[in-house]
Amino acid sequence: MADEEKNLIEILEDNIVVDINKFINYVQSPHCGAIATFAGTTRDTFDGKDVLELRYEAYVPMAIRCIKSICSSARTSWNLNAIAVAHRLGPVPVGETSVFIAVSSVHRADALDACQFVIDEVKALVPIWKKEVYTNGEVWKENSEFMERRDELGKSGPGQCCRKKVVVEEGPEKRGCCAGKVKVNNDAEL
């Protein structure tokens, strides 16, 4: 990772809420005309069940390493100033933010595309696990983004916003979520 990369990555312990203003202020810059953000919040229902809260667990050192790698990959595809990523652990009640991403750039297209790329990659690759707690039970949620990514690796087409720009090179030395070598593919068909 280059020294000029400005990233703020935080995995927040139990009962620490995401300070959205902190992350927006971090990415803000006078030479940037755009800040794109994404806030993932706990909703009150899922599949007809009443949700009380979400609970998150993570392997923190690997999660941070993976998010750093995702930020570096985003910078290879878009001209970005700063990236901030926060993810809570422990219980997250209905209406509260679980994950927050802020990305700044000179122009909005780069910030918007990179923000979507970062959340998609976090959901697909980072070792953070979610349990949904309902009024009548609880269940660990399968990471559907990971399963889709595994099944769709190397394919491009509609509905795969960022994969058309980023290609993961496979090889015997590659292992784990962050070890894949990412390369920009500017010639990929849309």
From TrEMBL:
Its localization reads: Cytoplasm
What InterPro entries does the record tag this protein with?
Answer: MoaE_sf (IPR036563), MOCS2B_euk (IPR028888), Mopterin_biosynth_MoaE (IPR003448)
Q: Pathway, according to UniProt?
A: Cofactor biosynthesis; molybdopterin biosynthesis
Instruction: Please indicate which superkingdom the organism of origin belongs to.
Output: Eukaryota
Q: What is its main location?
A: cytoplasm
What is this protein's function per UniProt?
Answer: Catalytic subunit of the molybdopterin synthase complex, a complex that catalyzes the conversion of precursor Z into molybdopterin. Acts by mediating the incorporation of 2 sulfur atoms from thiocarboxylated MOCS2A into precursor Z to generate a dithiolene group.
Protein name as it appears in the record: Molybdopterin synthase catalytic subunit
Q: Which organism is it from?
A: Castilleja foliolosa
